[in-house]
Amino acid sequence: MRRSLTLLAQSLVTKRGFCTKPEKIVASVLFERLPVVVPKIDPVVYAFQEFSFRWRQQYRRRYPDEFLDKSSSSGKGDYHIEYEPAPRITEADKTNDKKSLQRALDRRLYLLLYGNAYGSSRKPVWHFPEKVYDTEETLRKCAESALQSVLGELSHTYFVGNAPMGHMVIQPTDNAQDSGYKQFFFKSQVIATNKFKIGKCEDFVWVTKDELLDYFPEQAEYLNKMIIS
Amino acid sequence: MFRIGRTQQPLQSLTHQFLQRCSVSGTAKGKGKDGQAKKRSKVITKKGKKSDPEDPSSKPLSRQDSEKYRLYDQCINAPTPVRYLKPKDRAREAEREKLGLLSKGRIREKEIFKKGGRQAMGVPDEPMIIGTPGLDLITLGLVDVDKIPKYELTEEDGKKLAKEYSRVLMRKHRARQAAESNLLRCKKEAIEALPENLKKAALVPDLTPFPAERFMATLTPPIEGYINKIKEAAKRSSGMEKIR
């Protein structure tokens, strides 16, 4: 009777797919800086806009200047300052300085760290800021603490939502310790700064999406789906 | 702060008709209960009782008044470089010209043509710049000048451009929609892969408001220290605040 009960229990457990050992969960953070400048306009789009502007100007009525002056008179308290617009391609672009946030202003930049990651065990690799889930309440708090350990404080970050935006199942390599784990990505954005002090690692870079795919050759396909441009 | 030149602002024409007419029956819009056409409230001016104190045709005009009436005239009959006519109207105008009757619009059109056509009136054949002269899209580097296709200001060129424009934008839109649905799918799969208690926490919607300091992407990158200059200039121009 007892044996059948244990057999039943075991079969139930294996049927439902519970693993006997708790799976390791790692929360990693995709820290992105949103584009600062409007993206480039396609020449076809520009051509059509210009054409349609001129076409409409053809049929527009021309009113006398005195009539228009009354409506567009300057308001009281206007001040005039010489304005020299800042160039969209900064020096960081020309020198290709990957540590600066001023590179590639019309694209998103993602943070990558170089150091000891969880899954690589002692060999330094390029990885996202990450932390193993221990006993915090939610995975988002774990991710926040991960970012905090890198940046020092979270006043200039904004985590988007409570849920992860993607996950990867890392298969255990053939070591003695089976290091299979699940890596969950959380999205967070840079708010209102230009410089960060990145600690807790040997090296860091801010990369665009294409460069990011170079850094992770095997996971490039999934990252391509997870990140838009 | 940056005043856009007058020629760049398209104005609405003043050709509102004062009485709306139904396009088919020619009557005022709508029919009353007994089938009669509805009468909109009209403002009836008393004719003949009190003649205008400044009657333009009879008394000699002061210069201010003549200027005023000239301004009104120019506004009401404002010219356009190219006259817009539907093909039926164009055929009608051609017929009338054969008979020798010329409408005012046709006369004006001929005058404008003599003076040089629409090129003289400000619609050049070469592409115009979009935006204020220092800050237009080409000088800022937003468009590659060499890759812009060449075109004239004709209808079929316009149609070709419109087709290309629509094709390019639709392609981008579809790619973006596909990418976004991929994102959502990744998110759903990730939530499914979480263990039970974390899944419940992840499914709670995060209703805290977005941070106010998140900036929109602008045309040119922000210059450091510029906001202080503006504040100073504003303080100076608004006069001194407190003189105690």
From TrEMBL, chain A:
A GO molecular function term, named singly, is:
structural constituent of ribosome
Supply one GO CC term from the record.
mitochondrial large ribosomal subunit
CDD domains this protein is in? NUDIX_MRP_L46
Where does this protein chiefly localize?
A: mitochondrion
This protein's species is Dovyalis caffra
- Family stated for the protein in its record: Belongs to the mitochondrion-specific ribosomal protein mL46 family.
Record's PANTHER family? 39S RIBOSOMAL PROTEIN L46, MITOCHONDRIAL PRECURSOR-RELATED (PTHR13124), LARGE RIBOSOMAL SUBUNIT PROTEIN ML46 (PTHR13124:SF12)
Q: What is the lineage of its organism?
A: Eukaryota, Viridiplantae, Streptophyta, Embryophyta, Tracheophyta
Q: Which InterPro entries match?
A: Ribosomal_mL46, Ribosomal_mL46_NUDIX
Fetch the Gene3D superfamilies from UniProt: Nucleoside Triphosphate Pyrophosphohydrolase
Subcellular location(s): the record lists: Mitochondrion
Q: What is this protein called?
A: Large ribosomal subunit protein mL46
Alphabetized, the UniProt keywords read:
Mitochondrion, Ribonucleoprotein, Ribosomal protein, Transit peptide
UniProtKB/TrEMBL annotation, chain B:
For this record, the Gene Ontology CC terms, alphabetical, are: mitochondrial large ribosomal subunit
Bias type Basic and acidic residues, positions:
50-70
Which superkingdom does the taxonomy of this entry point to? Eukaryota
Q: Which Gene3D superfamilies match?
A: 6.10.250.3440
Give the matching InterPro entries.
Ribosomal_mL40_metazoa/plant
**Ranges of compositional bias, category Basic residues:** 38-49
Region Disordered, as annotated, extends over: 22-70
The protein's matches in PANTHER family, at most eight in alphabetical order, are given as: 39S RIBOSOMAL PROTEIN L40, MITOCHONDRIAL, LARGE RIBOSOMAL SUBUNIT PROTEIN ML40
Q: What is this protein called?
A: Copper ion binding
